[in-house]
Known about the structure:
The chain has helices at 2-23, 31-38, 42-54, 71-81, 83-99, 142-146, 151-160, 174-187, 231-248; strands spanning 58-61, 64-67, 102-109, 112-119, 134-136, 189-193, 200-209, 212-222. By secondary structure, the chain is α+β, with helices and mostly antiparallel strands. The mean pLDDT is 90.
Amino acid sequence: MAESNASTMRSLDRAIDVLEVLEAAPHGLRLSEIARRSGLHVATAQRILGALETRGRVEREDNRYRAGVGLLFGAHAFLTGSPLVLNARPVLQDLAAETGLASSVFVRTGTSRAVIARVEGSNPLRYELPVGERLPLHLGAGKVLAAYLPESLQQRVVDEAVPFVTASGVEIDVEAWREALVTIRARGYVVSEGERVIGARSVAAAVRLGDDVVAALQVAGTTETFPESRIEAWSAAVRNAASALSRRL
Length: 249
């Protein structure tokens, strides 16, 4: 029985590895590349992909595999059942109304972050940021989440964020980045300018559940819609909103 359970867990782990590879490649990958990235034998990867394709979790076209529409069912269940998402919506609506800026909540998954709730303000961004988008931890609101990670995971963020640069191509000094995380832990929030998107400005604060940081709450705009003169006021608004969401949780 123990051997059977171990075999089942290995199969499940491998299937999840394959799905995670496809999640990071929205335009799809060939079988050989999926096997290489997931560390599996080609035959094993093909068998797993076949099972996932049968269940609609994977789609295939022109010898390339990509995430399938069946994964939407799990995403919908999360978005309609997560206490964090449900409690975030009214807080984000109030914040977007107060600032006129796009207001979002991010959670960490591995060394990335994902948008799980978003409300547009009266000054919409010039770029799309859909719910479920995978974003880096080393830039923008991601730094709020990275700041509370153990040092070993912070190093993984650095190692996997290649190249370690801003949107404009400016290389980030790792030691300066680590010092910024210390400041974020002391203040509980971060102001970012042009890090992930050129010409953008944002402020993000930590959302807590007890002693744990479970999310980052952010408002973002352009340098025109989020002028420097509003940084202090809107930073306070974001911190208050993050505290309100923490209380609701």
